[in-house]
Amino acid sequence: MREHLSVMLNEVLEAVGGETNVRTVVDATLGLAGHSIEILKRHPEAFLYGFDQDAEAREIAAERLAPFAPRFEIIADNFRNIGLLKEIDGFSGADVILFDLGVSNLQISEPERGFSFQYDGPLDMRMDAGDEESCHPKAEEILRTAGIKELTEIFRDYGEERYAFQIAKGIVRHREHGGELHSTTELVELIRKILPAPVQRKMGGHPARKIFQALRIAVNDEINALSEALDGAAALLNPAGKIIIISYHSLEDRMVKHRFRKWKEEELGEPNPRKALLPAEDEVEANYKSRSAKLRIFEKYEEDEKVEDEF
Questions:
Q1: What percent of the chain has pLDDT over 70?
Q2: 218-236 as b/e: b if 16+ CB within 10 A
Q3: Which residues of 109-143 are buried (b: 16+ CB within 10 A; e: fewer)?
Q4: Cis peptide before 198 (omega within 30 of 0)
Q5: In sequence order, which residues have a C-beta less than 8 Å from that of residue 260 and are 6 or more positions away?
Q6: Tens digits of per-residue pLDDT, 250-305?
């Protein structure tokens, strides 16, 4: 079994709370079930629904959750379809909905998935690569067919890459001269050729990092999926329920923050606490992935609170 460290686990468990009224939990990003296992341990009356579109992750999660059967159900779907829970017999809303966004350690550590610029593998990046019905294009296809304008927008909007245009132009020129990109190593080497050495030294990180992030987001339509998932989650949340979200880059966090603000304006509830929580220093030292994590919590008003506000 691969080593698995759940990001900001203590903060998530504290947010879930120790109340006895936590009956239904939705883990919208089940992964290897690290958060879910600890929640089920602490809430013996709770039932958990876990979403994941990655077949391998679902298999591992099922094994790890087996001791808690029959208190869980794993759903093979993208969290953008979280609303389908309404169609399940016995489902009457969620008390806790958890999102741990971003790519998982399982996906990054397998070169054949193509998520990491540190390993040689095919330019795939589909989170549902094991699904024969996957409708997502591979990263290779985007790099082979998109023009300079489209690639620039992907790299700039999803990767916040300062040199988006230069890299997009270099990729298209490479194609025009008969060059092809099939592997992660080929893409990394091309980016290094496109960007002058002084520019790479000033970037403060791997020159391909933001490009890989941008391609992954584009391949999996992550921003639109998150927007739909947030709308669906708000509609499922019970009074006094909580939505707990861990994000890893500013695009996700900005969307979450704006959506929480919108819900507060609509008097659905409010962020609690008002600002994002950050991982403790000792966690960052023990788990490098947590370095960029931000955790936000939205708490829905109780029904009697809404009545009081109306008077």
A1: 94
A2: bbbebeebbebbbebbbeb
A3: ebbebbbbbbbebbbbbbbbbebeeeebbbbbebb
A4: no
A5: 270, 271, 296, 298
A6: 999 999 999 999 999 999 999 999 999 999 999 999 988 899 999 999 999 997 56
Q: What angle do CA 129, 132, 136 make, to 5 degrees?
A: 55
* pLDDT, mean over the chain: 93
The pTM (predicted TM-score) of the whole model is 0.91
- Residues 72-113: tens digit of each pLDDT: 999 999 999 999 999 999 899 999 999 999 787 788 888 899
Sheet holding 94-100, edge to edge: 72-75, 47-51, 24-27, 94-100, 237-247, 294-300, 269-271
From 187, 188, 207, select the one nearest 197 (Cα to Cα): 207
**CA-CA-CA-CA dihedral for 118, 124, 128, 129, to nearest 10:** -110
User: For 301, phi and psi rounded to 5 degrees?
Assistant: -65, 150
**Matching residue, tokens 């890989």:** 212
- The 3-class secondary structure across the chain, one letter per residue, is CCCCCCCCHHHHHHHHCCCCCCCEEEECCCCCCHHHHHHHHHCCCCEEEEECCCHHHHHHHHHHHHHHCCCEEEECCCHHHHHHHHHCCCCCCEEEEEEECCCCHHHHCCHHHCCCCCCCCECCCCCCCCCCCCCCCCHHHHHHHCCHHHHHHHHHHHHCCCCHHHHHHHHHHHHHCCCCCCEHHHHHHHHHHHCCHHHHHHCCCCCCHHHHHHHHHHHHCHHHHHHHHHHHHHHHEEEEEEEEEEECCHHHHHHHHHHHHHHHHCCCEEECCCCCECCCHHHHHHCHHHHHCEEEEEEECCHHHHHHHCC
Q: What is the pLDDT of residue 3?
A: 56
Q: What is the pLDDT of residue 306?
A: 56
